[in-house]
Design goal:
Layout (H helix, E strand, L loop, with lengths): L1 E8 L4 H12 L3 E2 L2 E2 L2 E7 L8 E9 L13 E6 L2 H6 L6 E10 L17 E5 L1 H7 L11 H12 L4 H12 L3 H14 L1 E2 L2 E2 L2
Parallel strand pairs: 1-6, 6-7, 7-8
Antiparallel strand pairs: 1-5, 2-3, 4-5, 8-9, 9-10
Helix pairs in contact: 3-6, 4-6, 5-6
Length: about 200
């Protein structure tokens, strides 16, 4: 099973991103075979807009019997708000060598991310700027989902970018070209410790 945790704040679209990811990856095939079983589950309570919230995605070759959130054994964590990665331990529960993808202008080697060095692979992408440049949302509320998904596909190497492009065309259907451009730009420019992802 491959587990992805999405950390964000209320109103940033973490729940939507988890749902999109689950729908997009259902039945997709990679070098380990198809993932016929996927699930997504948000966790939030009476928190107000802006409060930290988490969402969870599971991909599996076998029936998924786990329900709800998981705090341990994540293979990847996607952080929609860089402050959460800087001021908390966003890698808590992330397996050694797992992926920590942060929506940030900072380089992964920046002092702000030093606490993760040697534990996990830190990758950053300025998804806010990419979204705004492509007309997805506005300066106060950029819609970063497709940019972050493009970056995640690059660093995880789970699937090809064509899977996301097809999903944008058939399921998202709004601002198709803008979403594809944002995904491609993020795919091409995501950085990890040591430089641009190869």
């Amino acid at each position: 099973m491959y587990r992805i945790r999405i950390n964000g704040r209320g109103g940033q679209g973490g729940k939507m991103m988890a749902e999109l990811m689950a729908m997009m990856l259902y039945g997709q095939e990679n070098e380990t075979g198809k993932f016929p079983y996927v699930s997504s589950a948000p966790t939030f309570g009476p928190e107000r807009r802006g409060a930290p919230v988490d969402a969870f995605v599971r991909l599996s070759h076998e029936e998924i019997r786990e329900l709800g959130p998981f705090q341990e054994s994540a293979d990847a964590v996607i952080v929609l708000d860089a402050d959460l990665a800087i001021h908390t331990d966003a890698a808590k529960g992330l397996r050694d060598g797992g992926i920590l993808l942060v929506n940030s202008q900072l380089h992964p080697d920046d002092e702000a991310f030093k606490k993760y060095a040697g534990r996990v692979v830190v990758a950053t992408i300025d998804a806010d700027t990419i979204a705004i440049r492509n007309g997805l949302g506005n300066r106060t509320t950029p819609i970063v989902n497709t940019a972050l998904l493009g970056a995640f596909i690059r660093v995880s190497k789970l699937f090809s970018l064509d899977v996301l492009f097809q999903f944008i065309k058939t399921e998202i259907k709004k601002k198709v070209e803008a979403n594809k451009k944002a995904a491609q730009e993020a795919f091409d420019s995501v950085r990890h410790s040591g430089g641009v992802v190869s």
